[in-house]
Amino acid sequence: MPPPLLLLLLLLLGGAAAAAEPPAAPSSSPPPHKNATLSEILPRYGLPPGLFPASVTAFSLAANGSLAVDLGGPCYAHYEYLTYFEPRVTGVLRYGSLTGLSGVKVRRFLVWFDVVRVKVDLPPPPRYVYLDIGWITRKLPADEFESPHECEDSKKCRLSSALATVAAWFQGMEKGFGLVTVLHET
User: To which H or E segment does residue 16 belong?
Assistant: First the structure.
């Protein structure tokens, strides 16, 4: 066999042998969130630790950022707004935001709104947390999210929220009546 053909044959056989070797074993080092709580993970993504209530029982975070959070059951927590967390909340965790959110609602007056995205001011530490509820964005102080809030009894939360709504309505009516009275006096 001529030397160039012999060399080519050796190269082909060597390449085939290398391709037949089993792949290297995957690294046995744990993912960065192994044994960490969700409130410890969130600051690594520039988010405050108290975005989720204290009743988190488990969570999973995939390499692509998909986040699934399991709570001990439905949860009502008070931030600036009464917030409802379904037993399972999902979304995509990115640095400075949680998008594609499902399972979180906030109550404003008598209406519940789905929270679809949470984002913060960057760079950390954030001064504000922004809740996107459809086409509306609410800006809240980040201090409200410094630690996980406890879940509250749903009946108590709904009653206190309803009473606060009625009180706000009466305050608005009182101001409106005051304006009407002033207009009629002049």
Answer: helix 3-20
Question: What's the CATH number where 61 sits?
Answer: 2.30.240
Q: How many Å apart are CA 182 and CA 106, to the nearest integer?
A: 37
Residue 145 lies in a domain: yes
Domain span including residue 48: 38-177
> Measured between alpha carbons, how far is 68 from 60 in angstroms, rounded to an integer?
5
Q: Please, what are the averages of pLDDT over each run of 10 residues along the chain (186 residues)?
A: 49 45 36 78 95 96 97 94 96 97 93 95 88 91 94 67 56 47 39
78, part of any domain: yes
In a domain, 10, yes or no: no
Amino acid at 122: L
Q: What's the total number of domains in the chain? A: 1
Parallel, antiparallel or unpaired: strands 82-94 and 128-133:
unpaired
Q: Is the dihedral of CA 73, 78, 79, 84 positive or negative?
A: positive
Rounded Cα gap, residues 13 and 7, in angstroms: 10
CB 55 within 8 A of CB 75: yes
| d(C-alpha 84, C-alpha 115), whole Å | 10
Tokens for 153, please give them. Answer: 């009894």
